[in-house]
Design brief:
Length: about 450
């Protein structure tokens, strides 16, 4: 029944009935997520969960345990065995799909950070030296002061961290990065009391620079799976029923803090090790030095997964005339603004780089020809739609770009495979400019 539901939600699904079969299938297909049925007393699925977490090959795969009893004790046992979340029987479809989307977002972010960290080491930069992790900063957000006090007591009993109680309206006031929180525990146990505001609070915390990287654990009503699903889709990292015991809440909070610290360290590695050497100082984008090893890893991922890789070469039309007419400072403003528009309108996993002069590169893993066609057209429209500000005293300037696109198809193991796809994108760019500029052209093999 779960397989039918997952297929209907457009997921590729494999199903198996035994632990041995599951291990073989997981090793062969390397799934993004595992749904593990714990209701079958004839098989010790908790041990399978532990084995998957111990293995270096499968430890990063998200696991959702389903079919357990709806008690905090049963959920804690599954979480302790290694599950990322636990959904009791009968499984609510909306909550299951929301939880899958949430975990896949986490996996995508983790993979991207790990990929960039690996690239930095390939360029010869050392990992950050190990530092002592101080106490994490937690904030409990609640309209109910009494409930917040009980929640603080429960967390304080198992966490050696700084815990602050805030009114939800105060959570967005601070802008001091030194006081940034690692985890927000949001009390939404009584959604009727400020419920709509709490929905907005979750999305606002995720959107703002000073709070967007903090983890969010939402305490939800026990019999409202649709509410829990809504919080997950709005940006919460985890939800826990209000009837849960202190052990379960502490375990979930501890995991979120550990994930936050891991992501912070990976970001620091990239930021500190790469910025000076592989970042274009004008636009803040990656430069040509970074592109080559990172593209090689994207190509390797494409080959292993069987998914396509799209590469775009983007060139500003008549850029020389901008410099000649308005000066190089105006030309720099055009480059910076174009970089911002590209960066803000692509996925976190996409690579955006300045190759030199007025030429930019975008690499989009897992992107088909049709998706690449839509993305390229959308980027052209983003450039065309709004004139560029050249600075005080100068007129707004309409700017257009030409885009050449190549899509990898089935990547092979050739060491020069990525060079070939970039050459094809370059030729497509030349075709776009030869055809009159301000347009998108595809390499012949992707047309």
């Amino acid at each position: 029944m779960l397989k039918v539901k997952m297929l209907a939600a457009q997921f590729a699904v494999d199903a198996c009935a035994s632990k041995a079969e599951a291990i073989q299938m997981i090793e062969r297909n390397r799934p993004d997520l595992i749904l593990l049925n714990l209701s079958d007393a004839a098989h010790d699925q908790h041990s399978l969960c532990r084995d998957l977490r111990r293995s270096t090959v499968t430890k990063s795969i998200a696991i959702i345990a389903v079919g357990v009893a709806d008690t905090s004790r049963a959920r804690f046992a599954a979480l302790d065995a290694g599950a990322d979340d636990v959904l009791p029987h009968p499984v609510n479809d909306a909550l299951l799909l929301a939880r899958i989307r949430s975990l896949l977002r986490v996996r995508s972010t983790s993979q991207e950070l790990m990929l960039r960290e690996t690239t930095s080491r390939a360029l010869g930069f050392e990992e950050n030296k190990a530092v002592f992790d101080g106490a994490a900063r937690l904030a409990i957000l609640s309209y109910d002061a009494a409930a917040a006090s009980l929640l603080k007591s429960s967390l304080s009993a198992g966490l050696r961290n700084t815990i602050q109680v805030l009114h939800p309206n105060d959570a967005l006031l601070g802008d001091d990065s030194s006081a940034a929180h690692d985890l927000f525990v949001i009390n939404a146990a009584s959604v009727g009391d400020g419920g709509s505001q709490l929905f907005g609070l979750v999305s606002d915390l995720r959107a703002r620079n000073q709070t967007r990287l903090a983890m969010q654990l939402v305490v939800v009503p026990p019999d409202a799976p649709e509410v829990a699903a809504m919080f997950l889709d709005l940006g919460a990292d985890d939800v826990v029923p209000a009837t849960s015991g202190a052990d379960e809440i502490i375990m979930r909070a501890t995991r979120l803090i550990a994930r936050k610290r891991q992501h912070d360290k990976l970001r620091d590695t990239v930021r500190n090790g790469l910025n000076a050497a592989v970042t274009d100082p004008l636009t803040g984008l990656f430069n040509r030095r970074y592109v080559e090893p990172h593209l090689a890893r994207l190509a390797d991922q494409s080959r292993k997964s069987g998914r396509e890789l799209a590469v775009m070469m983007i060139d500003i039309d008549h850029f020389k005339s901008v410099n000649d007419t308005h000066g190089h400072a105006a030309g720099d403003k055009v480059l910076v603004e174009l970089a911002n528009r590209l960066r803000e309108n692509l996925r976190a996993i996409d690579l955006v780089a300045r190759m030199g002069g007025e030429e930019f590169l975008v690499a989009m893993p897992g992107t088909s020809v049709s998706d690449a066609r839509m993305a390229a057209a959308r980027l052209c429209e983003l450039v065309n739609a709004t004139p560029f500000n050249l600075g005080e005293g100068l007129p707004m300037l309409k700017v257009t770009v030409s885009v050449g696109v190549a899509v990898s198809g089935q990547m092979n193991g050739e060491c020069n495979a990525i060079t070939k796809i970039c050459d094809r994108a370059d030729k497509a760019l030349y075709a776009a400019k030869s055809a009159g500029r301000d347009r998108v052209a595809f390499s012949k093999s992707a047309a």
